[in-house]
TrEMBL record:
This is UPF0102 protein LIN78_03525. Belongs to the UPF0102 family. It comes from Leeia speluncae. It comes from the Bacteria. Gene3D superfamilies: 3.40.1350.10. InterPro entries: Restrct_endonuc-II-like (IPR011335), tRNA_endonuc-like_dom_sf (IPR011856), UPF0102_YraN-like (IPR003509). The lineage of its organism: Bacteria, Pseudomonadati, Pseudomonadota, Betaproteobacteria, Neisseriales.
Length: 118
């Protein structure tokens, strides 16, 4: 495991703990399929939330939140659609992004960061 992977896993664990303190409950972690991976899948009330966690050392190239660009969003959407095929009932869903910049301990949480294009 590289240092970056180790820091990424630590950020995911921090995000999980933070979101649980905010009242969300964990459904799945590091869900993988042929389309990609979703860091956290959680429930916020009746809403199923697909969460991408990003950690960046600096905001020099746009920062953690901005690093979830269109291409990554499309992979997350395809992966989420794959996950949804395993469910009997289609829940209300949203895509959130949790970002950590530098040594900041408090994450930036963007709810409903992007949506399916209609």
């Amino acid at each position: 495991m590289t240092i970056a992977q180790s820091k990424g896993q630590a950020a995911e664990l921090d995000a999980l703990n933070y979101l649980q303190r905010q009242g969300l409950s964990l459904i799945d972690q590091n869900y993988r399929c042929r389309y990609g991976e979703i860091d956290l899948i959680m429930k916020d009330g009746q809403t199923l939330v697909f969460i991408e966690v990003r950690k960046r050392q600096s905001a020099k190239f746009g920062g953690a939140i901005a690093s979830v660009a269109y291409t990554k969003q499309q992979k997350l959407i395809l992966t989420a659609q794959h996950f949804l095929t395993t469910l009997k009932k289609m829940p209300v869903c949203r895509f959130d992004v949790i970002g950590y910049e530098g040594s900041a301990l408090q994450p930036v949480w963007i709810k409903d960061a992007f949506q399916l294009a209609s």
